[in-house]
Amino acid sequence: MATRFDLLVPLATIGGVNLPGGMVYYGKTLALKADYAWTQGAPVPRDEFEPRPVWQIAHLDAPAQNSLATASADPAAATLQAAAKAAKSNVSVALGAYHTRTAAITAAGVDGVDLAPNSATLNAPPPEGASSNRYPAASQSVRIAATLRHTLPTDLGLDLGIAWSSDNASVSVDQTGLVQVLPGAAKGNATIKATSRLDPARSANASIDVSVYGDLGVRVR
Fold it and tell me: How many helices and strands, by DSSP H and E, does the chain display?
């Protein structure tokens, strides 16, 4: 009976893997590619003998989390989707048990909204026939300045504006942040909200107290 001897060819081993880091902006994706090399002197393994890259992501800024998706057509490729808020992640790719590379990925986004002033006391317009000296028009309005804190470049064509709203129909606010007490307003308060148009989850509130005829004058702090 003849004996069959199979020709044994030494398999190649992984010589290294490289994974570049980078920065990705809100609403954008970052393509990641793991480049790896094989040692010379042996054929590159194929099919089931070739180790498949294993991708993982570690979230460094909770609850803001970037997401990672692998490409089925190319296991050495992956795509990172930026979180709405600035977030950092460590993305790693492993080939086998001894070859792992980690890349730091930073997602740039909207961090928050700052308001100045963030509170004020305004006077309602005086009733008809009352002296307006005690309640000048200047005491019936205030302009609030909003600053959007973000890490986004301004040349991406993103909407970095602010949307304004009031929860009191007697206290209006326009899209420049000008707050006014309307005629007939009752004593009370209003919350003025400034919201990032790009990321509606980022907003800030200003508190407005409304005084009526007979109360003390305007106070802004």
Answer: 0, 19
* Domains annotated on the chain, with CATH: 14-108 (2.60.40.1080), 111-220 (2.60.40.60)
Tokens of 79: 């795509």
For residue range 35-94, what is the model confidence (pLDDT) as tens digits?
Answer: 766 555 544 445 444 567 788 888 887 677 788 888 767 777 888 888 766 778 888 888
Residue 51 burial (C-beta neighbours within 10 Å; 0-12, 13-18, 19+): middle
For residue 216, CA distances in Å to 46, 60, 84, 134, 143 come to 84, 50, 44, 9, 20
Q: What is the pTM (predicted TM-score) of this model? A: 0.63
In the chain, the DSSP E strands lie at: 14-18, 22-25, 29-33, 35-38, 54-59, 67-70, 77-81, 87-95, 99-108, 110-116, 119-123, 141-143, 145-150, 162-166, 171-173, 178-181, 188-196, 203-211, 219-220
Backbone angles phi, psi at 76, to 5 degrees: -85, 0
- Encoded tokens for 73: 């057509």
For residue 172, what are its two tokens? 């209006």
